[in-house]
Design a protein that fits this description.
The chain has 169 residues and is mostly helical. The chain has seven helices and two strands; from the N terminus they run H-H-H-H-H-E-E-H-H. It is globular, with a radius of gyration of 19 Å.
Length: 169
């Protein structure tokens, strides 16, 4: 076991600090309970934020094992298990056998789950369309590309960080 302190990361550039500030603002605005409740009302979907995040993830890459869902969402597996149980009782997801491992299961959307995700996305996109109405199609494409790239890099970095943690922490 090494007794050396972890390396000190380099100071953030002004651009990175500005991006972090903007992300903090957008995260706050988009995760407020009132905003979530409004979106769910517009979509006609009575789900909490965790359930909506899980449904969206399954819709983007289904079917997934619960452990894969937990990793992609950056949460504990027990959190996914509880949310999947809630969504299963509501008829939005079902468990299906994993074709690669007969002992495992994957989570798949039901028709009701697919319809719910579609309604949530449509309601969210309408609000975003209003906010970004003055942006050019090229600016919107560039923003989407850069956002996806940033998320992929965040996820890659998070995996690297997790693998550097000592066992038992």
């Amino acid at each position: 076991m090494s007794t050396e302190p972890p390396p000190v990361p380099p100071a953030a550039s002004p651009e990175v600090i500005d991006i972090e500030r903007a992300l903090t603002r957008i995260t706050y605005l988009s995760t407020r309970a009132r905003q979530h409740d409004r979106l769910m009302s517009l979509a006609g979907v009575p789900l909490d934020r965790a359930a909506v995040a899980l449904l969206r993830q399954v819709a983007d890459s289904e079917p997934l094992r619960p452990g894969e869902l937990a990793q992609r969402l950056g949460v504990e597996a027990s959190h996914v298990t509880r949310t999947v149980q809630q969504l299963q009782k509501s008829g939005y997801v079902r468990r299906v056998p994993d074709p690669d491992d007969g002992r495992a299961q994957r989570i798949r959307l039901t028709d009701a789950g697919r319809a719910a995700v579609d309604r949530v996305r449509e309601a969210g996109a309408r609000g975003m369309q209003l906010a970004l109405a003055e942006w050019s199609p090229e600016d919107l494409r560039q923003l989407a590309t850069l956002f996806h790239r940033m998320v992929d890099d965040f996820l890659s970095h998070a995996v690297e960080d997790d693998s550097e943690q000592p066992a038992g922490t």
